[in-house]
Amino acid sequence: MFGLESGWFGMFVFHGGALLGGCALDWLFGDPRWLPHPVRLMGRMIAWLEGLLRPRFSGRERAAGLLLAALMCCFWTVVPGLLLAALGGVALYLPGRAGAYFLLAAESLMCYQLLAAKDLCAESMKVCRSMEKGDVEEARRSVSMIVGRDTAPLDGSGILRAAVETVAENASDGVIAPMLYIALLGPVGGYLYKAVNTMDSMVGYKNDRYRELGRAAAKLDDLVNLVPSRLTGLLFCACAALLPGFDGRGALKVFCRDRFNHASPNSAQSEAACAGALGLRLAGDAWYFGTLCSKPYIGDDRRAIEAADVRRINRLMFGAQLLFLALWAVVLALWAAALIL
């Protein structure tokens, strides 16, 4: 009914179809280690640029950080854009609607590599299963693969809290945020977002090594996550109200009260909704690189954390993902109705 020639509406419908295809591929296949992944390439590129720029900008690390951020953003906007343009050129030579389907499949594959729901669930569930078997050391090894904090000081409850917190936070960074940018800007927007987010995760630290070099990346990450982090928190609240086994009122209460209990303006948004939905107290002091960092608590200590809470936060994450897709479909349906009327 609406083809590629349908202007803005057709473009958003097309991106929405590619997003749905990307989500389906992620749910089915996750992140196979043998498959080249753009985020790993981004990480190697950031490390290479840091090694290139740091000695050339000695004493001017902030300028080096600005240049690093500019180069990463340009590269990961231009290259995916050129790839899509080339694929679009190929699609023009295919008969009938085959070109549109070819381009949709290509965009879906590009979107798939930007989403991390299946992998996040799989890695966090390793922690859950190890704790259910009583194997705290195996759970510690598993959680060390998905968190940035030091895991040696953690007891069983601390390990579970770390797993729940990382799913809650990465539900924004690894799922809802790329989905939002894909829906609005297509795969190019998703790749640009992931480039910024990966920069922040690698150089956006407030320590002596990265305070100046990583400043631009950290500020840019705060900016691009301003809307997605809050959207994720609200989706968590809605899912907590709709799904059995969660506290919808508690999610909204703690979200409104504790969503700024973090040095970052965005990091506590989804964690606060998660803490309220599960009736848990999260965050608090944690060790990073051998240094104890003082952090405020998020949520109320209504009950002891248990391994099943890792399953619950994954249900909440997938629920938020499905709700996002449903809401985007509603937006497009209303737009279509307005065009028809």
TrEMBL record:
Function: Converts cobyric acid to cobinamide by the addition of aminopropanol on the F carboxylic group.
Membrane-spanning residues: 6-29, 64-94, 100-117, 322-340
Name listed for the protein in its UniProt record: Cobalamin biosynthesis protein CobD
Any one GO MF annotation of this record: ligase activity
Gene coding for it: cobD
HAMAP family documented for this protein: CobD_CbiB
Cellular component GO terms held in the UniProt record: plasma membrane
Entry membrane topology: Multi-pass membrane protein
Alphabetic keyword roster: Cell membrane, Cobalamin biosynthesis, Ligase, Membrane, Transmembrane, Transmembrane helix
GO BP of this protein: cobalamin biosynthetic process
Family to which the UniProt record says this protein belongs: Belongs to the CobD/CbiB family.
Main location: membrane
Top-rank taxon: Bacteria
Pathway in which the depicted protein is active: Cofactor biosynthesis; adenosylcobalamin biosynthesis
Localization terms from the record: Cell membrane
InterPro entries reported for this sequence: Cobalamin_biosynth_CobD/CbiB
